[in-house]
Design goal:
By secondary structure, this protein is an alpha/beta fold. The protein contains 9 helices and 12 strands.
């Protein structure tokens, strides 16, 4: 059976992929690697793993995601998000493996007023975004059988994310402040995992290039927090605040909405409404 190698097994997307892998028993073998098992910055280690496993597909869920820390831990962020991705793509080409790499809305500057298309000009406003953009470029340059999937506002019942943070803070505090002037679309990692497997199993084949994926709907972080509060029936008061009232080391894009029509047209992906997915994640559906 063809083998799918997945990096970042302990993250949100890697964990969701592990859950749905059982649905493909008899169709694919899976090998999952965490950062402690496979360092994508270690070329020799990567080469040995490819030689031993001969994967047909590689899904790179591994990433340096500490957006603020990336402003100072530049070498580490660059090694994982860019240089390591380039090596993965090169090894995929050498071993005739198709490569799926996960990227981010942070490759855009957030000054847009309508959903970003895949071919729109990139212009990251922080170092994390810069490293992710460089990773995209290296992946596509080093292996023509690469799909880059940009996603946004990812959450899951696994890992650390905005949804879990909001629930924790609302349980601890009578009032919280949440930024209301940053706009985007949440992505339930389970939905993204299912979309990736639909791409891999697509009968029409594997169409390389850049794709955008998130759940449907356009909201602010404040609106996201209010929905979490309502679904979990929490009593904390949520106050909207401007970005200027919550300074961070790394600048955030104000507008992160992406156009998903390409992935729908090419792969028949059905996009779920963000609130339906949130309710599922929080056990309300």
């Amino acid at each position: 059976m063809p083998l799918i190698l997945i990096t970042g097994k302990n993250g949100q997307l890697g964990s969701e992929l592990a859950d749905i892998a059982v649905q493909y028993t008899g169709q694919f073998d899976f090998s999952f690697f965490g950062r402690d098992q496979l360092d994508i910055g270690n070329k020799e280690q990567l080469a040995n793993v490819f030689l031993a496993l001969q994967p047909a597909y590689v899904i790179n869920c591994g990433a340096y995601t500490a957006v603020d820390k990336a402003e100072t831990e530049k070498e580490k962020a660059l090694g994982i998000n860019a240089e390591g991705v380039g090596v993965l793509a090169t090894l995929c080409k050498e071993h005739c493996a198709k490569f799926i790499h996960i990227s981010t809305d942070y490759v855009f500057n957030g000054q847009g007023t309508e959903p970003y298309k895949e071919e729109d000009v990139t212009d990251p406003v922080n170092y994390y975004g810069y490293t992710k953009l460089l990773g995209e470029k290296l992946a596509l340059q080093n292996n023509e059988d690469t799909i880059v999937i940009r996603t946004s506002w990812v959450y899951s019942r696994y890992g650390n994310n905005f949804v879990k943070t909001m629930i924790r803070l609302m349980n601890q505090r009578p009032e919280i402040n949440v930024v209301s002037d940053q706009i985007g679309s949440p992505t339930y990692a389970k939905d993204l995992a299912e979309a990736i497997m639909l791409i891999i199993t697509n009968k029409a084949g594997f169409t390389a290039g850049i794709y955008h994926f998130s759940n449907n709907g356009i909201i602010s972080w404040y609106q996201f927090a209010c929905a979490i509060k309502d679904i979990k029936q929490l009593n904390s008061i949520v106050h909207p605040i401007p970005t200027t009232a919550y300074p961070t080391p790394a600048k955030r894009p104000a507008y992160s909405v992406m156009d998903k029509s390409k992935i729908v047209a090419d792969y028949g992906i059905v996009l779920r409404d963000w609130k339906d997915s949130l309710e599922e994640c929080l056990g309300k559906s």
